[in-house]
Specification:
single chain, 209 residues, 6-stranded mixed beta barrel, two-stranded antiparallel ribbon, 25% helix
Length: 209
């Protein structure tokens, strides 16, 4: 698309140059160029500053459409000139936002931004409290159980793996449980009411890189 615009501009420039050359030849034939009269000096004319709007840069979006300012008449006129050369309606995209690029593949959108993942698992999830595993509140990895710690089957998700669960957040697979095997996962909660409110449900687990 950009190449076509530059080619159209080059054609317009050639037409302008040709017009100036014809005007010069016409002036020579009429004897205008042969006049040797001395031109009297005149005092310079003061140029008043105006508030005329300057043409805004015309940007080409990823979708091949040209973006213009709705109140910029100079840019609009320029677009119409290029449009006649390209045969394309450029003013139709006035004020349209640039097309948002899709996120790269194998990433999940989180409140902290996009995170890359290596695997997506559908799992049955339950909730537990820090002291459900041990009186000391320690996990199978020996770290304190708290919100953001999940119990998994190490044959499915190795201990030490970071995961992301929509509705729960980013978590660390650091615990195990006698009833947690296969595609089951236990999410550590902060208190009893939060665990009861979560209950048992099916969740999507993104295994992060």
């Amino acid at each position: 698309m950009k190449r076509r615009i530059f080619e159209a501009l080059e054609k317009i420039e050639r037409k302008c140059v040709l017009t100036l050359m014809i005007a010069g030849f016409t002036a020579i034939n009429t004897g205008f160029a042969e006049q040797n009269e001395e031109i009297p000096e005149e005092s310079p004319i003061a140029i008043e500053e105006t508030s005329a709007p300057q043409p805004t840069a015309i940007a080409v979006g990823e979708n091949g459409q040209i973006q213009l300012s709705a109140d910029d008449e100079l840019s609009r006129a320029f677009a119409e000139l290029v449009e006649r050369s390209l045969g394309q309606d450029l003013t139709a995209s006035v004020d349209e936002p640039f097309e948002e690029l899709p996120p790269p593949e194998e990433v999940v959108e989180t409140p902290q931004g996009y995170m890359s993942y290596t695997q997506v698992l559908g799992m049955e999830a339950t909730a537990y409290l820090p002291t459900d595993g041990s009186a000391e509140g320690l996990t199978a990895m020996g770290i304190p159980a708290t919100y953001g710690i999940v119990a998994v089957d190490p044959d499915i998700i190795p201990l030490g793996t970071r995961v992301y669960i929509p509705g729960y957040g980013e978590a660390l697979a650091a615990d195990t449980g006698g009833a947690i095997y296969g595609y089951r996962i236990d999410l550590c909660m902060e208190d009893y009411y939060q665990a009861m409110d979560f209950g048992r449900r099916t969740v999507t687990v993104f295994v992060l890189k």
